[in-house]
Amino acid sequence: MSIKLTILGCHSATPREAAHPTAQFLEINHRFFLIDCGEGTQMQLRKSKIKFSSINHIFISHLHGDHFFGLIGLVSTFGLLGRKNDLHIFGPTGLMEIIQLQLKATSSYLGFNLIFHELNSKEEELIFEDDHVEIHTIPLNHRVYTNGFLFKEKVGERKLNISAIKENPEIEICDYQHLKNGRDFVLQDGTVIKNKHLTFNPNAPLSYAYCSDTSYKPAIVRQIKNVDLLYHESTFLKDKVDLAVITKHSTAEEAAKIAKAANVGQLILGHYSSRYPEKKLFLEEAKTIFDQVILSEDGKVISLENSISNALCVAHQN
Amino acid sequence: MSIKLTILGCHSATPREAAHPTAQFLEINHRFFLIDCGEGTQMQLRKSKIKFSSINHIFISHLHGDHFFGLIGLVSTFGLLGRKNDLHIFGPTGLMEIIQLQLKATSSYLGFNLIFHELNSKEEELIFEDDHVEIHTIPLNHRVYTNGFLFKEKVGERKLNISAIKENPEIEICDYQHLKNGRDFVLQDGTVIKNKHLTFNPNAPLSYAYCSDTSYKPAIVRQIKNVDLLYHESTFLKDKVDLAVITKHSTAEEAAKIAKAANVGQLILGHYSSRYPEKKLFLEEAKTIFDQVILSEDGKVISLENSISNALCVAHQN
Fold first, then answer.
1. How far does the CA of residue A287 sit from the closest CA of chain B (Å)?
2. Global pTM?
3. ipTM of this model?
4. Candidate from B64, B102, B107 with C-beta closest to A143
5. Using H for helix, E for strand and C for coil, what is the string for chain A?
């Protein structure tokens, strides 16, 4: 049970040197996801030494350029690198047409299946599920149709209590998987040993909510309640709350209010407007409301490990 | 009469950290042109401290992603920055549809006119002309429809020979422009002083030919004969000439053969394949054929100043 989030870019609107537009690479419970893909994302992936082959699922929040203009370049590069695995792209209706038009115009041959999952529902949806993870949309409120994404680990197998097991010589290694799956053990004399005496609870599953871009929307609190990690955009400080309302963005204070109301483990701020000279202003404003705040920075890695009862969050700059 | 060429990116195919795809910014005779626009070009422009407002004309050679995937981002940024001036884009048919589809999908409002000049002729064409410069297409041979571009300064005004003028007190300052325009001077007694005795020849106009991407195509030599500066792609070395033929690219040796046959002043190599560990291998190969060779590097600036008879070329890394 672990999360490793690499911030590839966390700046709003126009890309600048050392200020990359939005993209994140998420490793959660041994699954890998790319979230948004602003211009230059493929260079940022290389800089962070992330294997291109690990990316099989890409999630695009909305069709503003700073969140998807890097996608066609990445897809083309996959083609040039001889990729074979299916690539799944989840994003708003319209994205498929944009990518396909450019692939056609560039006479690109892709040796892999490009599978679009176009999103248009305004209600929360389960859009991905396997035996490790499930992913839901988080309907947001922006100038164009926008979804956040909620990534939730599934509850894992129970953990073997080896010392308790050893006290029962009838239990063999071939029985372990049944125990991990929660089954009781029946001795030859018919005695039932309850599973809870032979195993520990699995680690609590972790969760990550990505919310960008959006105006202040308290309605999302219900859906992201108690997530371990929340990325919430903070384009502005509260001195520009009027502008935040007009452009349907959020302030750092508003992001912190959402984090507090949802009782999240850790809030990550980002999507900073270039009008502010220092990122620490966002941190200071958010901390007046909610204490557990991290600033996203291009290249920063945020790791979350879960033991049975405690989540430990560590951030470092690549 | 001067050329200043900034190499924004000079690598082929897949962008990597510190290996940007093709884009060049050309200043020629006080006019400014952007040539090709691979992903990340707008960041490279900022890095080279080139004013976005100086770009009013963009030339796209062909519809391969490493030559135009940065265009939509740059156009969007112009819009976000409040640009008002017309923007002219010259490129193959199909480019307009790609840009317009994305502007529509992103609900982008542009406060300026975006004027496309779609190219589809296979013959050389004059596509731009003002009182300083003229620009012609150079039909190339690549896997998709591709043009190079030939930028030619126009012959400037004649230069005043002040000491000769001073010997004729009848010539006043208000006559100077006529002399610069080549007119003879008629004294009050009817004597004609030939213009050539009162002025010097103007500096020779400079020219720059951009040829990428292309297979070895000796037919272009006629058109680029005697240009001062030639950029010719050299994706491969001659060890991969078979691959160059298949992919319709050139080797460094072939680029040098073109430069030699055309008697150019200076050859610039670029569009290097990432398979080669060192760029100097391209330089060494080209120099066996033609001596005046420069390697393009991301961020390198190549300047050419013309006095009456000599062109002086200087290159430095930003």
1. 31
2. 0.90
3. 0.89
4. B107
5. CEEEEEEEECECCCCECCECECEEEEEECCEEEEEEECCCHHHHHHHCCCCHHHCCEEECCCCCHHHHCCHHHHHHHHHHCCCCCCEEEEEECCHHHHHHHHHHHCCCCCCCCEEEEEECCCCCCEEEECCCEEEEEEECCCCCCCEEEEEEECCCCCEECHHHHHCCCCCCHHHHHHHHCCCCEECCCCCEECHHHCEECCCCCCEEEEECCCCCCHHHHHHHCCCCEEEEECCECHHHHHHHHHHCCCEHHHHHHHHHHHCCCEEEEECECCCCCCCHHHHHHHHCCCCCEEECCCCEEEEEEECCCCEEEEEEEC
